[in-house]
Amino acid sequence: MIILKTPKGWTGPKFVNGLPIEGTFRAHQVPITDPASNPEHLKQLEDWLKSYKPEELFDEDGRLIPELEDLAPKGLRRMGANPHTNGGIMLKELRMPDFCDYGLELKDRGQTGPGDTLVLGTFIRDIVKMNQEGRNFRLFGPDETLSNKLNAVFEVTNRQWQAEVMDTDEFLKADGRVIEMLSEHQCEGWLEGYLLTGRHGLFNCYEAFIHIIDSMFNQHAKWLKVTAGLQWRRKIASLNILLASHVWRQDHNGFTHQDPGFIDHVVNKKASVVRVYLPPDANCLLSVMDHCLKSKHYVNVVVAGKHPSPQWLTIDEATVHCTKGIGIWGWAGNDEGIEPDVVMGCAGDVPTLETLAAVSILKEKLPDLKIRVVNVVDLMKLQPETEHPHGLSDKDFDSLFTKDKPVIFAFHAYPWLIHRLTYKRTNHDNIHVRGYKEEGTITTPFDMTVLNEMDRFNLALDVIDRLPQLGDTTAYLKQELKDKLIEHSIYIKKNGIDMPEVRDWKWTKRSK
């Protein structure tokens, strides 16, 4: 390797307007700013350009002289023709197991699973195993593979590590398919390079700290958008980002680790490039990740939980639901065949839990109330089809959310994103969103939802407040719900954990 060290602005003008240029910060700017009206600047620009002696480099017709042209690489050695710079040429399909084989058996709606990413880890493990020979799949992360519960991958591979290994280290070997370094931007750079040279990968990260690669994501998304329109540029594997350790379950780490805003950043990019998925349980996560790893030329962002959590759908139901990206959960509502009084929407694992808990309260206390539950996995379904290729038509959106009924929507991230995605919809004025509103601390899991008014009691209160036809008949119920919030506050301060009725809540047949 030859390293050439040169002054910044080398070969440019030494001084302009009496100020030094070469070797200073000014060389990073336009050095000669006014050649159009300043004769001295024009003369400096002319001298600068002539210093390259173009008469020695080009013939009278402006063509590069043959002896210099012959120095350029030929054929596949040319930079633009080298297959390693056009990774789609080198790309081989991943060998993938059937994700359905890893699904959790669902005996009861809402049964507690071991942790969604823990289940996903077994699927990723076997992808690593099946592609060991091809050496074309890697898992990247800022020292969080175990923390994000992808533990199973270490049953078949290690962290690749070239430096000293200590007795206290685990899973460090000279050869491994996991690449870790406590630097999100380094991991993102590694993954982008890996994809651009024709391989596949997955980047797992804490949700709050993925912001570190905001600008890197920007540039990759722009590159994908531009190159999709170049016929000679082959499509590459998608950039897949798994965000675990998310905002609603960072109660132990506190406010610094609570930020779901990367989603807002992602949806700014071209609709042909970005995808955002919020699977509500492990089986949905398996279906979504199978789709993402098989896709090309996208940025796929998947947000999932790692702690034990309720499971809602069988693997077959999850496959259908995730293929649609959005749908009515008929088993959760009671409006089949009639017009609902209210629509309860949800996107994300914790919002789904709190929505269903709110529904169970309303069904018990207001049995005549007709409720529809709509779960969203593919966030871009909320946009009109004219704005995003995954978007629903106005007719299909209205069939789910109605044209005039109140919609109480519990969302994983900042609530205004839902308003932004749905502002053109017929019923937008009736959509009321609860989500993260920058309230956090070290507290209990349920208290995180209470602090942001996305808990089951506040959601039930929202429904009551949006249904004037209930009149004064709900006064006692409203008081009961508000009392529950006070009881919650007192209980966690005294005991440091959530109330048993929250911790141990289950979706039961009575909830139906």
Explain this structure.
The chain is an alpha/beta fold and 512 residues long. Helix content is 33%, strand content 13%. It has 17 helices and 17 strands. The protein has helices spanning 39-50, 54-57, 66-69, 87-90, 116-130, 184-196, 214-227, 262-266, 282-294, 315-324, 349-365, 394-401, 416-422, 445-451, 456-465, 475-495, 500-503, and strands at residues 15-16, 19-20, 111-113, 137-141, 159-160, 172-173, 178-180, 200-206, 239-244, 274-277, 299-303, 309-311, 326-328, 342-347, 371-376, 407-411, 431-434. The strands form 5 sheets. Strands 7-4-8-9-11-10 form a 6-stranded parallel sheet, with helices on both faces. Helix 7 (214-227) links the parallel strand 8 and strand 9. The protein is elongated and about 90 Å long. The N and C termini lie far apart (69 Å). The model has no long low-confidence stretch (mean pLDDT 95).
Search tags:
single chain; 512 residues; alpha/beta; 17 helices; elongated
- Rg (C-alpha, Å): 28 Å
Query: What's the arrangement of strands in the largest beta sheet?
Result: 7-4-8-9-11-10
Mass-distribution shape:
elongated
The number of strands is 17
- Distance from first to last alpha carbon: 69 Å
The biggest sheet, with number of strands, parallel, antiparallel or mixed sense and barrel status, is: 6 strands, parallel
Estimate percent helicity.
Answer: 25-40%
- The number of helical segments is 17
DSSP strand (E) fraction? 5-15%
Mean pLDDT: 95
Q: Report the uncertain regions.
A: none
- Structural class by helix and strand composition: alpha/beta
